Amino acid sequence: MAETTQIQKSTPVLPWMRNPVDIVDFKETPLTMLPFLDPRLVKALKNVHISSLFPVQVAVWQETIGPGAFERDLCVNSPTGSGKTLSYALPIVQKLATHSVKCLRALVVLPTRDLAVQVKNVFDVIAPAVGLSVGLAVGQSSLADEISALVKAPRLEAGFCYDPEDHANKLRSAVDILVATPGRLMDHINTTKGFTLEHLRYLVVDETDRLLGEAYQSWLPAVLKLSSLNDEVFAPCVEAFSASICGSFKTIRRFGVERGFKDKANPRLVKMLFSATLTRNPSKLGLLDLHHPLFLTTGQSRYAFPEKLEFFKVICESNDKALYLVALLQKLKGEKCIVFTSSKKMTHRLCSLLKCFGNLEMRIKGYSSCQHQAVRSKTLDAFRKGEVEVLISSDNLSRGTDVEAVANVIIYDVPRYIKAYLHRAGRTARAFQIGRCFTLLLKDEMKKFKALQQKAEISSTVFPLSSESIQSLQPAYTSAFDKLKENVESEAFRKRKVNFKSTKPRRAKTAKISKE
Do 51 and 181 fall within a single domain? Predict the structure, then answer.
């Protein structure tokens, strides 16, 4: 296997993170060259036009189905859009397909509903091909509907009398793999009869730094406490891997593995951590109780951006940053763009302002967490289909969301932290496609932005917008701003009017009660 890369010594890291496996040393590999891959999975992947695996997928495959054989827990730090979801979905489905036991054996936890739905769609491509079923627990439907999909009752003969308590004890999982958000997962753990993690064998923590950075109703301690493996059913089948085929992979230098551990049957909960900005915090990683962890990362830099991403900056000579945004969008007309703002409030304001322009000739929509899930899904679907050209979004869309053919990311508000910048920029140039990231900068933001880029070890080219194009937009911009102001005032008046009407009956009723 690939030689390992030494992380910069100036960065304080855990001992096992000092000698990572470098994903860069792996090459894209055709499915036909991948050892052990089930022919049914090959067919399923080719049906969706996947004929080869990306480097991160090949690296993880080696450590799970190849010579690594799930010996160690995996921590993977790889750029956005590099194929991390399939890198864990494929080996998990392959391993679960070797046993016909119907129980919940794999759990994937993600921070948001949109990401969870996206990951389930990836599993749905390959899992049915080998007879596995995938469940979703995100609160998108009612709890009762989710329960009926996740847990099934034993089949009873007609006229058979049974004890309700005994019947409840016989409830069992209807899915092999569950994709969930932390809150909904805890709902099922605490209230759903028949829902159990006692057979859990694989735990994937996707977007790890975010899931470990927030409490999320203490989902992690609950999962680790409730999961216990059945040694007889789930003993690793190490002998199934022939030495001749394993020899087709290079050998990893395995740091920190004590003598005699390799190739021993060791039933346990396998943990896999994935992120484009994987945390190095020992206290946070310590919560997972990792088993001889192996660190896979891309290159020497801690912050890995997509390989074919180009960076540009737009210097705004005045404080009317929105004016420069309009000029840039006109120059990029016909290409899909995501514009990132600092908050959902700013998203709403900016989207409303752009819609007040009468001659933009492009469809613009807003996307933020204050919208209902159904509205967000509809908006994202329209953007994917090309019915919407420009999506104005808060950071709700910045992590993990995969939208094909996004040519440009425009950062309207410079984020405070490099991680936020990386995740925003990573919505384009996915799957090794070309993409561009534009950052709009006021003069007083230049110094902060320069420091941000130095930390990420990247640089931006100045993207020129002619003063003539800016000046020509000034009348339309002034008119749009005035129109927006009128709309805001009108909306505020309507809200006050509605509030007055809603409080008037209560006041009358109170007066009547007082009189009595």
Answer: no
Q: Are residues 333 and 206 in the same domain?
A: no
267-275 mean pLDDT: 91
- Which residues are CB-contacts of 11 (< 8 A; sequence separation ≥ 6)? 280, 302
DSSP codes joined into one string, 321-334: HHHHHHHHHHHTTT
Strands of the sheet with 177-180, listed across from one edge:
21-22, 294-297, 74-77, 270-275, 202-206, 106-109, 177-180, 134-137
Most confident of 277-281, 310-314, 361-365: 310-314
* Domain region containing 17: 1-98+237-256+273-302
Instruction: Give percent helix, percent strand, percent coil of the chain, each to the nearest 5.
Output: 45, 15, 40
Strand partners, 436: 310, 408
Q: Tell me what the mean pLDDT of segment 450-466 comes to.
A: 92
CATH number of residue 120's parent domain: 3.40.50.300
Same domain, 413 and 320: yes
Work out the average pLDDT over 310-339: 93
Instruction: Name, of 43-52, 205-214, 402-411, the range with top average pLDDT.
Output: 43-52
- Same domain for 103 and 18: no
Please give the average per-residue pLDDT across 146-175, as a whole number: 70
Contact in structure between 204 and 116 (CB atoms under 8 Å): no
| Tally of CA atoms within 13 A in the half-sphere of 102 that contains its CB | 15
Vertex 171: Cα angle to 166 and 174 (nearest 5): 170
For 474-479, what is the mean pLDDT?
A: 90
Interior/surface letters 408-419, b for 16+ CB within 10 angstroms, e for the rest: bbbbbbbbeebb
> Does any domain span residue 514?
no
Do residues 145 and 278 share a domain?
Answer: no
- Confidence label for 66 from pLDDT (cuts 50, 70 and 90): confident
The DSSP element (H or E) to which 86 belongs, if any, is helix 84-96
Q: 390 Cβ partners below 8 Å, 6+ apart? A: 329, 336, 337, 338, 339, 354, 362, 363, 364, 365
CA nearest to 235, candidates 399, 95, 351: 95
169: confidence class by pLDDT, cuts 50, 70, 90? low
Domain count, the chain: 3
Q: Are 300 and 8 in contact (CB under 8 A)?
A: yes
In this structure, are 452 and 347 located in the same domain? yes
Element (H, E) at 351: helix 344-355
> In sequence order, what are the residues at sequence separation of 6 or more whose Cβ sits closer than 8 angstroms to the Cβ of residue 88?
60, 108, 204, 206, 272, 274
